[in-house]
Amino acid sequence: MKSMNNQATLDRLRDLKLVGMYQAFETLLRLPLHQQPPADELLAQLTEAEHEYRQHRRTQMAIRAARFRYQASLEELHYGPGRNLDKTLVLRLADCRFIDRAENIFLTGSTGCGKSYVASALGYQACQLGYRVGYHNLIRLIQRLQLAKADGSYQREMSRLERQHLLILDDWGLQPLDQNGRLALLQIMEDRHGKAATIITSQLPVSKWHDYIDDPTLADAILDRLTHKAHRMELKGESMRRKQSLAAEK
Fold it and tell me: Phi and psi of 144, rounded to 5°?
């Protein structure tokens, strides 16, 4: 009779979509009777299992929605000599409180030095801590916004960007901006200024960003909002992709 009751409980947990509880209870039932916890401990374990399951599910959904360029983690970052990746700063940013403070991060350096990977790692960390993150190639984002203007969904797209706690703009400066792109970028920065955080990766040093925008008035407005509260990391050294390719060939 007890086995039937346990099976009925499992069925009810499954019907209620309490997947974490279902999996934990099913595992506990496989233990010998003398190893199974008393009722109060059982309830605590099942509740914690459901909490962890839902938290993990939310994190995975946030990661999928962010569309990161790389699957990355802060634990896998390399702080080798000559790379100029500030470990102290990275560890300070790992709690993601910079997002609450609406602080921006600039990751600059030559191609292949790991800028996008570091940005992805910070984005993954933010997802795990419950923040909404969006990862975009800058030019493709601008192109998408221009298409949105044509089909009437522009404001909806801008509102979606504004709701991201952390916006990552990758490959800043690879292609020139037209006037519509500059205006879209200004609106994005205006919407986020003082309210949300932005990470930018670029081969261009920050000192060249004004020239890249190529409109003194708009450049002043955009960079004033971006640089107001910003952490800067200029990565150096040879291409990480080249290193990995050479290592794979050995």
Answer: -65, -40
Residue 26 confidence class, pLDDT cut points 50, 70, 90: confident
* Closest by CA position to 196, among listed 132, 94, 102: 102
Q: What is the pLDDT of residue 139?
A: 95
Distance CA 94, CA 150 (A): 39
Residue 206: beta bridge partners? none
Residue 46: partners with Cβ closer than 8 Å, 6 or more residues away:
20, 21, 24, 25
Percent helix, strand, coil in the chain, to 5, is: 60, 10, 30
CA distance 201 to 115: 6
DSSP string, 86-151: -HHHHHHHTT-HHHHTT-EEEEE-STTSSHHHHHHHHHHHHHHTT--EEEEEHHHHHHHHHHHHHH
Residues 163-176 have pLDDT tens digits of: 999 999 999 999 99
The CA-to-CA distance between both ends of the chain, in Å, stands at 63
Condensed to tens digits (0 to 9), the pLDDT of residues 102-133 reads 999 999 999 989 999 999 999 999 999 999 99
Q: Which of 192, 194, 226, 197 is nearest to 209 (CA)?
A: 226
